[in-house]
Design brief:
single chain; alpha+beta; FAD/NAD(P)-binding domain; 9-stranded mixed beta sheet; 8-stranded mixed beta sheet; binds flavin-adenine dinucleotide
Amino acid sequence: MKPDYDVVVAGAGIVGASLALSLARLSPDKPLRIALVEAREPPPAQVYEGDEEAPFDTRVVALSEASRLLLEEFGVWETIKAARACPYTCMEVHDADGTGTVSFDAEAIDQADLGHIVENSLILQTLYTAIVDQQNIELLCPETVTAVNQGSADAGEIRTNNELLQLQLQGHTVLTRLLVAADGSRSALRDFCGFETRSWDYGQQAIVATLRCEHSHVGKAWQWFAPQGPLAFLPLQNHDGDSHYISIVWSQQHQRAEQLMALSDQAFCRELGLASESCLGALELVTSRRSYPLTQSHVIDYVKPRIALVGDAAHTIHPLAGQGVNLGLNDVRVLSEELGNCYAQGRDIGSTDVLRRYQRRRKPENLAAMAGMEGLKRLFERDELPFRLLRNWGMKQVDGLGPVKNQLIKRAMGIP
Ligand SMILES: Cc1cc2nc3c(=O)[nH]c(=O)nc-3n(C[C@H](O)[C@H](O)[C@H](O)COP(=O)(O)OP(=O)(O)OC[C@H]3O[C@@H](n4cnc5c(N)ncnc54)[C@H](O)[C@@H]3O)c2cc1C
């Protein structure tokens, strides 16, 4: 039997779409045949094309330098930058209950910036445009992978004929050498294929929105840690470079989040002003507010025979450090490298030893990031005086230790 595709990527969020593009470019002489299956309609293409009044997307990503370089490799970064990517050169982290502050500066590590804030839909649109131009990617959209190896009733007992995997789409079946599930934090494929997952509910929701602010953000990002949850201000700029816009991610316990969501726009902005010490003056909402329940999850294994998980399907992390997409794009880079090496040697790209190498290389970084976020969250949610003193002391120490601080920020940026 011949496969219909070498690789089927299920889920064309930022991670799945990037993986399809990366794999499509691996071997120009003998390109892989790839299907990218996405359940939702493709994003509208025209929104950013010369439209200065295009509304802001409420979802944004703080892209690390490593992620930006990947988008540059795909040839989409210039388009993103020309539309509206906002570089930030400084980040201030505050303990909202005390006096502790740490600030990170791009100049101190000889970089032009610490990263870029970009709207999710802008990244997705540019990736889709590149995908449509890529002849060896078939975009099946809207379409869903509903089952793996139809007829295999036992989750976790995925049967293959040793060479191929059979996937059930809505109307037909396809054969592939490898399935990569990039179907997000609620991955149905992960569950269907019986991947064991550790997950827990944070009991929090993240409220996101875009606001216009009285004062320019001057390319600075802010983060306040409070016992009820962290608040981030991420700088945005309009098409013409107007730097009076920010995106917020405000994580709060469910009850408080629901109260904040129920407030009028003016009352919500007043609360936000209080929580942010009015650092940017008066605030005005320019998008509606949306809220997302926050969970953390991590699969025990990222791979099974002929199946790999990437991005949020494998690991979902608290958004307080804005690392979810960046970790997912690191998965993309490593899985592409491993599959590229294997394919160049004429070996089977679905073989378990290749997939296990991907898992070995990615699991430590993902686990470390999750442990770090969990530690930070727990440290800052304690309200007792000794914890507050320890936090303030710790932040002052870190702030005073230039080389340590610079190493921390370089790690977060994904630069050596
Ligand atoms: C409030 C908030 C703020 C965040 N801020 C940041 C940040 O600043 N920086 C950062 O790096 N990360 C951030 N994150 C995390 C980031 O959003 C996620 O890590 C990222 O979106 C995961 O991308 P993904 O492609 O893996 O999954 P998703 O974006 O969830 O994409 C999954 C795709 O799969 C499709 N799909 C689902 N099931 C199927 C199926 N069976 N068949 C086919 N298609 C399917 C879906 O339609 C979807 O398009 C934030 C998260 C939240 C909640």
